Amino acid sequence: TNCATTCCSGGTLYDGNNSGSANRGSGGGGFCLSGSGESELLVVDSEISGNIADGEWVASGCGGWMSGFKSATFDGTLFATNMHKSGRNGCFGGILQANGVPIAFRRCAFRGNYCAGGDFLHLNGNCGGTVFENCIFAGNSVATVLGGGRGVVDMALGAMESAVSFLNCTFAYNACGDTGALYVERGTAAVTN
User: Fold this and answer.
1) Strand order of the sheet with strand 96-99?
2) Shortest CA distance to 154 belongs to which of 67, 75, 92?
């Protein structure tokens, strides 16, 4: 079926496991989705939890990995206890890695996720325009054994003028190694309470 919108409502993606030994490691413990460029992803009132991704060199997207979508929306989604457990260079996206996809996160909770090193939400490339609205990030931890920490949200956007917005969000009890909740490699973070 060729659908313009991929939709998941009231679903649970859990206990997925993806591992590999390729140079870029592996991704998508819970899901690994590539869009057609014009397709959109919609996930509503769902849970992505207990997923694992690891690789010999680097893992990415332990909860999920996505690329190629025009846009994505996660509304009322819980991301919990997703884990990166090994890899020589840590993890890009212990919860989620997005490559070139602007995402709207609304009423989402990110709780109890773990990385042996790296970050939790890795926004890479053309993810400018991503919005987090009324979200909570609590009890996530990045160990510093593999590459240190790069925050709860790591922004490596396509351009310095690209922005990610955080509206009425809470960051509490996260352990991110030697960085804070937001780690901006490239781009701008706009935070409003």
Assistant:
1) 31-34, 64-67, 96-99, 121-125, 153-157, 182-186
2) 92
Q: How many whole angstroms separate alpha carbon 5 and alpha carbon 35?
A: 10
**Neighbouring C-beta atoms of residue 65, cutoff 10 Å:** 26
Q: What is the pLDDT of residues 145-155, one digit of tens each?
A: 555 567 788 89
pTM of the model: 0.85
CA distance 63 to 192: 27
Distance CA 139, CA 175 (A): 7
Q: What are the tokens at 122?
A: 């890795």
Q: Tokens at residue 74, please?
A: 């996660």
User: Is 105 within 8 Å of 76 (Cβ atoms)?
Assistant: no
Residue 48 pLDDT: 86
Instruction: Tell me how far apart the alpha carbons of residues 142 and 182 are, in angstroms, rounded to a whole number.
Output: 13
